[in-house]
């Protein structure tokens, strides 16, 4: 296990270096004058030239790359062209807001998807299995942006159960402001005893989280079902069944554990799916997270912010997949 962890750690570092290099050269190839954008409208040539020197754009590309990598080691992602603040500081404010959505969406999609898949496999060929297969097929097929708008239409416009958009009720920002402790609003409101804000945030999170989890839930459920049915046909399961072990024990103890290995891989990939979906969901629900920040950076050609967001998403995705690989190794020691 120690050798496995060391190998995965070395691979993680190498992959992050490759990703950061690709992101740097890709953003440098995009059209537009970064210095002119940094100064803003009606910029004079001498102002643009000073900004180019200040941003290090007057140096050769290889020198820019060395400075860029050196700053990354110290968590320095540069200054945002749009906000004129350090990109790292902006991201530290936005990331917790997005991770709250990603965490709940991934948690519910994982447990819900595995539960649905197990149920469908257990009742294979029955009416329950057919209904669950139809439902999971629909969840995989529906576009996320359409689902988000549909949820707003049904649960806000028609039923009035949940808010339309935003992170919390606007009047609570003045009457019950959130005390910044960890950056995660639900944790901060609970720790500070701000239960009115906690209730408002929880209600505002429901629709965005549902929009994010529906697609991954269907994929995880369908893979769990197929993987579990495949495992239950293996020779060692037939031998255990012949020895008199009950079907329930075979299914939930021997079968499910061995079927979880490919499911964990898909759960790791679902992190990227959910992170990409936040770009749509946060814009539709006006949720002030990293997706909303990224879209604003793209619309204003904020190259430094685009690099910061790309690296952050890549790092999260790589770390999530590494954790899933470690869990797979724990569940199935045969994996090398």
Can you walk me through this structure?
The protein has 336 residues and is mostly helical. The chain is built from 14 helices and no strands. Helices cover 76% and strands 0% of the residues. Helix 7 crosses helix 10 (195-231). It is globular and about 85 Å long. The mean pLDDT is 80.
Please give the radius of gyration in angstroms.
24 Å
Question: Which regions have little confidence, pLDDT < 50, spanning 5+ residues?
Answer: none
Roughly how much helix do the residues carry, as a percent range? over 70%
Mind describing the biggest β-sheet? none
Shape by Cα distribution:
globular
Order of helices and strands: HHHHHHHHHHHHHH
| Average pLDDT score | 80
- The end-to-end span amounts to 9 Å
Q: Output the structural class.
A: mainly alpha
Query: How many strands?
Result: 0
Count of DSSP H/I helices: 14
Hey, roughly how much beta strand do the residues contain? Answer: under 5%
């Amino acid at each position: 296990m120690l050798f496995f962890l060391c190998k995965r750690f070395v691979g993680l570092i190498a992959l992050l270096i490759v990703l950061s290099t690709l992101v740097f050269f890709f953003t440098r190839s995009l059209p537009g004058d970064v210095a002119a954008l940094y100064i803003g409208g009606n910029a004079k040539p001498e102002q643009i030239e000073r900004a180019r020197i200040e941003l290090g754009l007057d140096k050769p590309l290889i020198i820019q790359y060395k400075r860029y990598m050196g700053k990354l080691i110290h968590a320095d992602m540069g200054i945002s062209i749009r906000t004129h603040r350090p990109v790292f500081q902006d991201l530290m404010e936005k990331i917790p807001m997005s991770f709250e959505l990603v965490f709940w969406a991934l948690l519910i999609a994982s447990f819900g998807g595995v539960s649905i898949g197990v149920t469908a496999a257990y009742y294979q060929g029955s009416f329950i299995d057919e209904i669950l297969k139809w439902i999971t097929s629909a969840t995989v097929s529906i576009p996320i942006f359409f689902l988000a708008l549909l949820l707003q239409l049904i649960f806000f416009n028609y039923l009035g159960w949940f808010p339309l958009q935003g992170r919390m009720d606007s009047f609570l920002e003045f009457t019950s402001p959130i005390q910044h402790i960890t950056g995660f609003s639900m944790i901060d409101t609970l720790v500070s005893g701000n239960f009115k804000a906690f209730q408002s945030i929880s209600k505002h999170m429901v629709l965005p989280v549902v929009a994010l989890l529906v697609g991954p839930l269907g994929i995880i459920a369908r893979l769990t079902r197929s993987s579990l049915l495949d495992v239950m046909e293996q020779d060692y399961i037939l031998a255990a069944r012949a020895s008199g072990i009950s079907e329930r024990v075979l299914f939930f103890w021997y079968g499910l554990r061995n079927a979880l290995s490919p499911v964990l891989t898909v759960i790791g990939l679902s992190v990227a799916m959910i992170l990409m979906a936040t770009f749509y969901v946060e814009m539709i629900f006006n949720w002030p997270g990293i997706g909303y920040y990224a879209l604003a950076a793209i619309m204003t050609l904020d190259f430094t912010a685009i690099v910061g967001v790309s690296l952050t998403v890549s790092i999260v995705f790589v770390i999530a997949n590494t954790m899933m690989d470690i869990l797979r190794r724990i569940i199935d020691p045969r994996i090398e």
